[in-house]
Amino acid sequence: MKESHKLISRRQFIQTSSWLVGGVFVSPFLQSCNAGNVSFGWVTDIHYADAKVKWDRYFGESKDKLSEAVSLYNQSNLDFAIETGDFKDENAEPDKVKTLQYLKEIEAVFKEFKGPRYHVLGNHDVDSLSKEEFLTNVINTGISPDRSYYSYVLNGWRFIVLDACFRNDGVAYDNNNFKWYDTYMPAEQLTWLKDELRQSTEPVCIFIHQPLDGKGDLFVNNSKQVRQLLEESQKVHAVFQGHRHEGGYQLINGIHYITQKAMVDYSGPENNSYSIVSISTGGDILINGYRQAESHALSDLVEVL
Which of 135, 35, 43, 47 is nearest to 81 (CA)? Predict the structure, then answer.
């Protein structure tokens, strides 16, 4: 007999399904229907520095590349703009004074966006600086500069920014005291994330630098533990990531994991990478990628037997 398939919304799927948590079936959270449309500009891995080309990274060109993106964002009536880490870089011989200057220069370009803007900490953001030094020299709209992970609400959506710039021993990255592949989310932040998800009455999107959708050097070492929290909440629609310069996409247990291509890679405006993301009231996600950034149309529909 031929199998019959149909498409239903993830909200309908959640409403009529059960979720297995700790071996016990429980009724999942029914997502609020009050969320509105939201759109934002997204860039990642800008790596700006006055430094020699390395690994096809044209550090010095990133200022003009970001300026191109911001110009489009200002024409597009967006709700906010966000960069998902590695905003700046450093010279082959680390120099705190120069590195801080690179940060200020690229922030001045990002500041040209006429709306709220947000930053996610990447490993290169704290290569010659402390987290405090980075965060006090940028603006996260409405967020205290002592917060490296935080959340904000716009148009009925909650956006959660995470910080995986910690070593496996729980020590925060600070002035090159780490290896780039030793990335971890400590217990204190996991507890905060769990509480944020539990208390949220809005559907959620996540921003993080190091990806959560795999294992190995390029991923958060305890990514599986983080994903479990996201899945159990039944409120997370998508995770927006950087770090893997080639980009990528995965759908894992109903959550979209989108990694955007790096802005810094290769020379010339034709090798720029940035996007505009639009999320509908129903949770559908449309990513318009520009230059080398990939476009995605991600539906909130799931196929069931």
Answer: 43
- Could you tell me how many residues make up the chain? 305
Angstrom distance (rounded) from CA 289 to CA 260: 9
Tell me whether strands 255-259 and 273-279 are parallel, antiparallel or unpaired.
unpaired
Rounded Cα distance between 111 and 117, Å, is 8
31-81, pLDDT tens digit by residue?
444 689 999 999 999 999 999 999 999 999 999 999 999 999 999 999 999
Q: Return mean pLDDT, the chain.
A: 91
Are 207 and 84 in contact, with CB atoms under 8 Å apart?
yes
Tokens of 206: 């996540």
d(CA 226, CA 239): 11
Q: Which fold has domain 36-295?
A: Purple Acid Phosphatase; chain A, domain 2 (3.60.21)
Q: Which amino acid belongs to residue 24?
A: V
CB distance 249 to 211 below 8 Å? no
Give phi and psi for 109, each to the nearest 5. Answer: -70, -45
Q: Which long-range contacts (CB under 8 A, 24 or more apart) does 193-198 make?
A: 193/149, 193/160, 193/162, 193/226, 193/229, 194/229, 196/151, 196/158, 196/160, 197/160, 197/229, 197/230, 197/233, 197/235, 197/236, 198/233
